[in-house]
Amino acid sequence: MSKKKVVLATRNKGKVLEFNERFGEIGWEIVPLPEDAPEVIEDGLTFEENASKKARSAAFFCGLPALSDDSGLEVDALNGAPGVFSARYAGEHATDEQNNQKLLQALRHIPEQERSARFVCALAFVDCTRKSQVAQPLIVRGTCAGRIVDIPRGKNGFGYDPLLFIPELGKTIAEMTIEEKHRISHRGEAIRHMIDLIRTEHE
Ligand SMILES: O=P(O)(O)OP(=O)(O)OP(=O)(O)OC[C@H]1O[C@@H](n2cnc3c(O)ncnc32)[C@H](O)[C@@H]1O
Ligand SMILES: [Mg+2]
């Protein structure tokens, strides 16, 4: 049987690496988002809303089913910020480094026991070959809880990975291999949920 082509609606290379190969077990061939796909304005109030917008836009543009990811970091001492603004916390085209520095600065007076935080990942899947799903994408969420360190640690991963320490494993996410991250991360959990959901949808 030929594989089902699904567009991965993201421009984030770190995410792309984490999705690679994960959907082979349900017979998907993941194809990259074309360079000329339209920019999506990520103005939703929730990760789920933004993920739906990104998946719908890519599905319409490519005429293929599309999978998208909207994710971010929620810090309790900042009432959930940066949240859906994680990518542009330090400004519209901020680098990971600038976002990390801004977060460390915002938390500089907060003691270790009050630095709890979590990564959240919402995935949306729009299958334009199934009419009902264009209006209502399949949506799942995964989370990964830890606490924010005061000095970045580790070189792996991307984004805020050097800042989130996972007490059970005694390291930050940037100190993990991609396999270790997949086992415990928000994105790993969301991908497992999405694969389960797609399997039940097709039963
Ligand atoms: O919208 P797309 O094109 O998918 O790419 P993006 O990088 O803009 O992605 P988001 O809008 O979902 O913003 C996510 C932000 O949260 C950060 N982030 C998401 N997942 C992460 C992870 O696994 N580890 C570290 N930081 C992460 C990421 O660096 C961004 O700053
Ligand atoms: Mg984005």
From TrEMBL:
Active site: 70 (proton acceptor)
Listed name of the protein: dITP/XTP pyrophosphatase
Positions annotated to bind substrate: 10-15, 71, 158-161, 181, 186-187
Quaternary structure (record): Homodimer.
Pfam family, one: Ham1p_like
Organism per entry: Fodinisporobacter ferrooxydans
InterPro entries: dITP/XTP_pyrophosphatase, ITPase-like_fam, RdgB/HAM1
Family statement drawn from the similarity comment of this UniProt entry: Belongs to the HAM1 NTPase family.
